[in-house]
Amino acid sequence: MSTTTPETPPRKAGSREWLGLAVLALPTLLISLDQSVLYLALPHLAADIRPTGTQTLWIMDIYGFLIAGFLITMGALGDRIGRRKLLMIGATAVGVTSVAAAWSTSAEALIVTRALLGIAAATLMPSTLALIGNMFHDPYERGRAIAVWAGCFMGGTALGPALGGVMLEFFWWGSVFLLGVPVMVVLLIVAPLVLPEYKNADAGRIDPLSVVLSLASILSIIYGLKELARYGFATTPLAAVGVGVAVGALFVSRQRTLADPLLDLRLFKVGAFTAALSILMVSMLATGGGYLFISGFLQMVERLSPMRAGLWMVPSAVASILAAQLAPILAKRHAPGTVIGVGLLVGTIGYLMLVLVDPVGGLPLLMAAFVIIFIGVGTLGALGTSLVVGSVPPERGGSAAALSSICGDLGNALGVATLGSLGAAVFRDSLDLPADTPPGAAATATASMEDAVTAARDLPADDAENLLAAAAEAYTNGLNAIGVACAVITATSAALALAMLRKSRDVTPSDNALSST
């Protein structure tokens, strides 16, 4: 039950709450760092522990898979045992597993430690976001707090390659996993002093079968989408997505029969909650696919090192952070849906600029487009997440936070799969290799830009340069097509925001239909 009434203004946050926000921002920064920094370390660890191709894929993916798979469970667990307690348990586990990953001596050991690290990290996102909802009762202050939270996540993604490059310059590949250890130590020391504890005293025990069903559903869908993005349409990944959807239906059916479900489906009766989740998921389709091709352009067409590519991405991260901080200020005067919609329309312009990028001299235009795109991303990240958390009662905060993260993950994976397939098809159709390209190299190069780069390594310098120029032209054509598709998706998201959230204001938990439950 909410402690505020229409006659009682919500309590303002004090210095303890704002200091607590700084503590909650630390694990958020860490998660995004861990997701991006490994790409830079991959060649180094491959030379040391020599994983097979399949093992390399699992080293890269298992962390994100298990974060997504355990989000619902961890959100519900935090609601039951206490969000601060779960956060501290997770921080301890992250610290321990990070050290274990850093000193892994085999591919198998690294896969296991990355899996455990993903499970531990899954405690952090819903706990931090739900605690923000507990600490900041005023809608405007809550929006500002979530904007800071979202800004840290976006900043960590951009800082990962640059910071990882510095670590690899002076230390061994395992050092990139140790970045989170001091962060977790600080959190464990300071959290009991500045963070409140909150749990739902009326919640029952967690249903084990629901945990299994939710994990199986999410993992199957994410795995299938990622495999579709890598290898195109094939029986196994399509079957995995189908199994995930079917198991998800069983999960939903079971939640309807439980007195205390793992996921309260009544949350979806709250209009702002459902609308914000839908818009987050649709917009992440464009973000995932666009980011994939833009980062690929930097490394394979412009031939930048991962660290230099990461540095070129910093301006877009800064733009998203600034947009996230500005969004709550604008939402104080206008409906959040209006601010989100306008932000996404700005992002649409950025995607349309991708249509004009050329393989030679296209970097300035690409980076300008990237900055404009992330203005929309930052606006949606701050206000969309704020609407999700603010439109449910405090006792449902963990579940709401988990769903917000899952929708982002699913949208991103679906965007990588579908738009990645679109871009790959355009690449293959438009690739015009030089007539004197050796048959073996030509057969390899037609598969993807990555394969073209691989094929060029075995050719004489002039032949390699000609092959790479042709591949760069075809890849840029794919990027141009992705720009059109992303513009359509983002404009659709903007229309949804303007239509579905045009009357929404930041709400307090007492404003919605579940506050009395």
List keywords for this structure.
about 525 residues, mainly alpha, 17 helices, globular
What does it look like?
With 517 residues, the chain is an all-alpha fold. The protein contains 17 helices and no strands. Helix 1 runs antiparallel to helix 2 (53-81), helix 1 (15-49) runs parallel beside helix 6 and helix 15 (439-445) runs antiparallel to helix 16 (449-456). The longest helix is centred in the C-terminal third of the chain and has 40 residues, at 461-500. The chain starts with 14 loop residues before the first helix and ends in a 17-residue tail after the last helix.
Question: Could you give the topology of this structure?
Answer:
Layout: H1 15-49, H2 53-81, H3 83-102, H4 107-121, H5 124-135, H6 139-170, H7 180-194, H8 208-231, H9 235-257, H10 271-301, H11 306-331, H12 336-353, H13 363-390, H14 397-430, H15 439-445, H16 449-456, H17 461-500
Model regions low in confidence, pLDDT < 50 over at least 5 residues: 1-6, 506-513
Order of helices and strands: HHHHHHHHHHHHHHHHH
How would you characterize the largest beta sheet? Answer: none
Which value, in Å, is the CA radius of gyration? 23 Å
Q: Work out the helix count.
A: 17
Strand content: under 5%
Mean pLDDT: 81
Total DSSP E strands? 0
Helical/strand content category: mainly alpha
Helix content: over 70%
- How far is the N terminus from the C terminus? 7 Å
Question: Short summary of the structure?
Answer:
With 517 residues, this protein is mostly helical. It has helices at 15-49, 53-81, 83-102, 107-121, 124-135, 139-170, 180-194, 208-231, 235-257, 271-301, 306-331, 336-353, 363-390, 397-430, 439-445, 449-456, 461-500. The radius of gyration is 23 Å and the shape is globular.
